[in-house]
Design brief:
Length: 751
Amino acid sequence: MQTKFNRVPEEERSSRLVLIARFEDSMKDCTGSECLSTTPLGDAAPPQRADSCGFNRRSFLRLAVLGSGALLVPCDLLEALEIPTASNAANPVLPASAALRPLAPGAVRADGWLAGWLGKQADGLGYHLPDTSWPFSAPYWQGQEVNGQSEEWWPWEQKAYWIDGATRLALVTGDERLLRRVQEPLEYTLAHQRPEGYLGPDVIRNPAGNFHRWPHTLFIRALAADADAIRSDAALRDAIVEAVRKHYLGDLASYGVPIRNITNVEDMLWCYERTGDPRLLAMAETAWADYAALGGKEDGADLQADRVFANTPIDAHGVSYAEIAKQPAILYMYTGRLEYLNFALAAQKRIFDHHMLIDGIPSTSEHYSTVTALDSHETCDITDHTWSWGYMMMATGNGLWGDRVERACFNAGMGAIKKDWKGVQYFSCPNQFLATQTSDHNAMNLGHQMMSYQPNPGHATACCGGDVHRLFPNYVIRMWMRDTQGGLAAALYGPCRVNTTAGKDHHPIEIVETTDYPFDEQIHFTLDMRKPVEFPLSLRIPGWCAQPSLLLNGQAQPLPAAKNRFVTLARKFHPGDTVTLVLPMSTAVSRWPDNGAGLERGPLVYSLPIKEQWTPVIEPRWSTADFPSWNAEPASVWNYGLAVDPAKLADEVRFERKAMTPDPWVDPPVSLIAPAQIIESWKLATVPAKPDAAADAPQQHLTPPLPSADARRAAGPEQQVTLVPYGSTHLRLTIFPRLGGGTAGYADATG
Ligand SMILES: [Zn+2]
């Protein structure tokens, strides 16, 4: 469904079929030897042809800078490949044990509300972050190298998060202005590669320091996205792949220690897939062995095998654990060694068994913690856990991971971002009754600004302001994946269209996915291709859906047996075929510590929205008049308890739906009406002014814990309150104090 927020012009969303037709036409005059090889019919784009068979400007510039030549091969060597590869690579490989593989950035384009959301990101902080706040305003990865000899690693990390996120955002939206801006650091860094291969700043070139290879993990992700993008040509792809190969193979750093160097395994194996260079695989496996022998005990990520397999609570920093724990799942995809996969699965189990909050992200402020109504998460943990769970879905082929990514993005992710894409929280929480410059209720920086919505909410600790930009572009990139049989899998749902290939002969196909999901239960797929194509089409059946149903060309179909939370239609599809998946949602209530309760329906958690009184604050260095920091004070009643008996949920909580709205995260079309009672004595908490505040500074207000049993017993008369999707709120009550009701009938909301 198109909305007024859909910012991608119709002509730019031209079908893959048109692109292929243009490509075929353009090749008619080709005489052979001068043609540039590419990856024509896989997930990569047809070659971008400039004059006759020459390079386009982008590839020419890159090649001129790098002095790297791509092989020129005859047109008749063009063939369909599963993956984008460097044409001068000897033996590109596949992740043979991966059940699912990602498509190239740009193969999936958002429609409907999702396109509107990405458009707001691109027009807001996606483009303007470098105009608002340090370190994004400084030329890290773009010339700061010559000035920054006394600096630490962390500005390089923070800017690299934005570079990666903005690159992916530009690639999935086709936003040329953003692409031009974000390509400047990519091109600068590639052009300044050291003779031995090192990419990046001298200040962290010495591998001895902590975190000194961590920023590279993030920056090389951006290069990888640029290389793989559907719009990129073979020359650009070759140049990047070779630069990354040279970087790793020339590096003398230990990648097993110290902390987070091991995260480079992800990028090493990306390069291994595209080059087949066995030294990269060996390097990655050696790094993990070194980490397991040394780092797991010494770096604080709590990934010692004995603790992982004992399923203990995690005693570690959230981002470190999320980024490191997934590495063995990636190693499994390239080696088939089950011990890697078993380790990764066990490491993930700890997150869900001990730390998961109702909104789909574990408590991580910044270490993993308990699951009370005040436990929060760092926004980097939303981006990084979902990034990792995407890999878990590829490694296992299990749609469970898709459920988890959706829950995290629609609830915790949306809930941490200001809906005009002009601010983001560093710490966000299911219960946050205010979000001001002094309302951080977490132990880390208690009473400081990290829960307010700002362009850069962490100030000098600027990770989240950059990392948030990766979240939804990666969601879009991973909505569709390729299986091992030439089929396609709908892994994450939402309005979009995918242009790729399917079937044994890699036939070009477009699938238009029309839906208002997660605000609706119906998802329509329309298939467009030149001829009938036989391939498996797999659709994820979420774990929360008890009675899914399926229609083919409007006719009800028996639902195939689900395997790993996917049903597969393996048949010959015809041009214009339609498939409709119906995923009925039902309301559920879950129970939380301190006698708390929360409501959800399908992938959406519901909250009492608290009206905000917004006050802008301009903080030199961290925000501007156009992109200020914000104080949000509560301007409506929030101190409700939930008077719901779980055994009578269907009678006591009413679901309401109105027509789809143009911007559903601002004006949600769905709501729950639930009985509640005011708890009069439940007030905002106050703490003494923070140590560095002026002597006459007012007391600071914080979101309080759930009220006492005595306070609940004095609750007022029952009334009906309207709850909306958590992701549509800025201030919210999500974990309610329970008032009465039995103890039976609660759902497990931890995924
Ligand atoms: Zn962060």
